[in-house]
Amino acid sequence: MVQSVRGDEHEAVGIGVPSVVDFETGRVLSSVNVPLGNLPLRDLLAERLDAPVYVDNDATVAAFAEAHDDQLRLVAGNLVMITIGTGIGGGLVLGGRIYRGRTGGAGELGHTLVGLDLAVTVAAPVGFPQPGSLERLTAGQALGRQAARAGDATAVRVIELWGGRVGVGVANAINTFDPDEVVIGGYSPRAARSPRRRARSRVAGCHTLRT
Description:
Layout: H1 2-5, E1 13-17, E2 19-22, E3 27-31, H2 41-49, E4 53-57, H3 58-66, E5 79-84, E6 88-94, E7 97-98, H4 134-138, H5 140-150, H6 155-177, E8 181-186, H7 193-202, E9 209-210
Parallel strand pairs: 1-4, 5-8, 8-9
Antiparallel strand pairs: 2-3, 5-6, 6-7
């Protein structure tokens, strides 16, 4: 695919993957929804393409793009990106710069816990996505499971419940990072107007919520 679009004046290749990435080396460390782990992706692609290659988390590069306008001017110095699809991804731009954390996994907002019942004994970790996590409760697969169980008669209620859960996750991100904008991307947010209304009702204090 890269070869089909590259021109004579290309300088480098950038790629985003749904994984925790060591940006300094371009190595994919781990993934939840794709079979990639401990893979020197930058080196492999650089050798195959004969060009400099940069590899980062897909939601992280999406966040960086959303923080800039079409002329590459910074328009949101503090921005949280949440991507909703098969899983839940996230990216952070803080102070105008990408924030990756110590291991590269700082933006993985899908792993934050939004629905854990703390009135009972807290269950031991069972691997990702954890029970009660944003990804477990709101990713595309979770929505499909709920709709299949609920049937057509309550499909609207399922969508509204989903929107409310997304809103809880957005509210937590706002309370943690106090961003200029929260951007929701991926295929699910535009599926219906109801989820966006439900999500907005949870995050009235945010400066901007954009989908």
